[in-house]
Amino acid sequence: GQQLNQSPQSMFIQEGEDVSMNCTSSSIFNTWLWYKQEPGEGPVLLIALYKAGELTSNGRLTAQFGITRKDSFLNISASIPSDVGIYFCAGLSGGSNYKLTFGKGTLLTVNP
Amino acid sequence: EPEVTQTPSHQVTQMGQEVILRCVPISNHLYFYWYRQILGQKVEFLVSFYNNEISEKSEIFDDQFSVERPDGSNFTLKIRSTKLEDSAMYFCASRGAGSSTGELFFGEGSRLTVL
After folding, report:
1. Which of B41, B48, B101 shows the shortest C-beta gap to A97?
2. Do A21 and A11 form a contact (C-beta atoms < 8 A)?
3. What are phi and psi of B68, to 5 degrees?
4. Staple partner for A32: which of A5, A49, B78, B81, CB 3.0–4.6 Å?
5. Do B102 and A104 touch (CB under 8 A)?
6. A61: confidence class by pLDDT, cuts 50, 70, 90
7. If we measure between CA atoms, which residue out of A41, A51, A56 comes closest to residue A86?
8. Which of residues 11-40 of B touch A (CB under 8 A)?
9. How distant is the Cα of B53 from the closest Cα of chain A, in angstroms?
10. Side by side, which strands form the sheet with A19-25?
11. CB of A74 within 8 Å of any CB in chain B?
12. What backbone torsions phi and psi does residue A44 show, to the nearest 5 degrees?
């Protein structure tokens, strides 16, 4: 099946720092999604990307859909303690069933 | 804001017992999904459901699993005879009919512990 390689696995940063994480795949995806998961909760959609090369922002979050359609990155600027959580990329390869393939996640810890 | 709700939030069961996990998708959504997340691992697709039938399932979704939409609001996942390796967080998700995107909305999950 399709696999997404997400890195880094974890990050420990100081409040105020910028963060960058990315996902790569050997397969092409038509849509890239970034989710955040907090303890005991389900994934919450942060950003959705629909076109190769697209750069989209949501507040302090910026994500890009790679031009080859095989990668995406997520940047968080000026991190704050509530940014703590696990960030997952997810790819959608098309078809009518919208089956998402998830990356393994990046655990973000922000020290105040 | 409309949301996907799941019950129970946590269920502990003995190996071999049947378990039913329940979900109430967002009311005007027509596509429904179950995903699973084993502790510390990534979220994995189990099954998608549309128009009262399974549209796709993964290799994880074997004969022990079944899904049902018994009425107009609930969407259930049944595990007939639980195994230790079924212990995981199970997430229900739904998607709107008119959406051409992959924007799935997830519930908060049901944690299943099989002893």
Report:
1. B48
2. yes
3. -155, 145
4. A49
5. no
6. very high
7. A41
8. 31, 33, 35
9. 12
10. A4-7, A19-25, A71-76, A61-65, A55-58
11. no
12. -115, 130
Average confidence (pLDDT) over B91-103: 75
DSSP secondary structure of A54-80: -EEEETTEEEEE-TTSSEEEEEE-S--
What is the percent of chain B where pLDDT is above 90? 71
Q: Tell me which DSSP letter residue B58 carries.
A: -
- Tokens at A31, concatenated: 């849509």
Question: Which tokens hold the place of B46?
Answer: 């189990």
Confidence of residue B105 (pLDDT cuts 50, 70, 90): confident
A contacts of B2 (beta carbons < 8 Å): none
Which tokens belong to B102?
Answer: 């992959």
Tell me which residue in B56, B91, B101 faces A31 most closely, judged by beta carbons. Answer: B101
